[in-house]
C-alpha cells in the first residue's frame, strides 16, 4: 500500500513509488529474470498488493517467485513479519520490511509500502512500483509462466487496457482513499460524486459484456476487482463511500462475484486481514479500533449469471491449479 500524504490540510495525494527498478528478461536492467531469486512481499489487506498476488497465481509463478505475507497490522516500524516463527521472514531473515528498504537506500526515511519485490541474495528491495510490478509479471516472466497461463496484458489491447486502468485508478482505486481521508466537506462531496459517477459508468460498460476489455480477463479486471471486493467490508462505512453498497449495484455485484468465483481471485482474498488492517491502523478515522463483525460474506459464492454474456475467463489458457498449501486463505464463514 502506498503512502497517502496530506496536502493543504484538506486533500490527500498518493505518493509515487520511490523504488522503480524493473526485473527484465533482456538484460536491460541490473535485475535479470531468474527463478528463485526474488521474493514478493505482500499484505493480503492491501489492494495494491492483492493485484500482484492474483497475477502471480493466475500466471503460475508460485514456484518461481516466493511470497511473504505480512501481518495486516503494521506499526511505526513498517510492515512486520509477526505471522512467521520468531517474527522473522523465513527467507529474508528480517523482522520488518523497512530493513530491505534500508539495504536498497541507507538512510531512507520515506514510506514503506507493499507490494515489494526483494532480491533474496542481497536482501535489497528491488521495486515497490505497484503499477509496473504486475505488468512485468505478465510481460517479462513469460518463459517462467505455467503452461496455459492467460495473457493478461495482450499487446493488441494495451492501449484500451491502459485507458481503462487510468480511469479506474483515478476515480475508484485511489478514489475511495481520496474520499475517505479528505478532511474538507466540499472536497469529500466532490470525490464521493466522482467515485460513484465512475462506478455507474463501469456498470453501463459491463452490463452487456463480461469483462472490461476484450472477451477474457485482463489486467483491467484485476485492478477493478481488488477495490470492489473490499467495498462493502471497508470502503462503504469506513471511508464514507455510502451512496450504495456493492450488493446494491446489480451489475457490479454480479461482475465481482463472477471474478471472485474464478480460480485465482477469491482464493487469494482474506477478509479478516482486510478488515483488521483498515479498522485498526486508520485510527484517525476509527479511533476506537473496533473491527465490525459484518458484512455477511456468504453472498460472494451465490450464482452470478454472467456466463450468459459469453467470454472465456482465461482466453486460450486454462485455470490455475490448486492454491499451494502454505498460501491458502480461510473459507468464507
UniProtKB/TrEMBL annotation:
Residues 151-281 form the GST C-terminal domain. It holds the Pfam family GST_C_2. SUPFAM superfamilies: GST C-terminal domain-like (SSF47616), Thioredoxin-like (SSF52833). Residues 1-24 have a biased composition (Basic and acidic residues). Residues 1-28, 301-333 are annotated as: Disordered. InterPro entries: Glutathione-S-Trfase_C-like (IPR010987), Glutathione-S-Trfase_C_sf (IPR036282), Glutathione_S-Trfase (IPR040079), GST_Omega-like_C (IPR047047), GST_Omega/GSH (IPR016639), Thioredoxin-like_sf (IPR036249). This is Glutathione S-transferase C-terminal domain-containing protein.
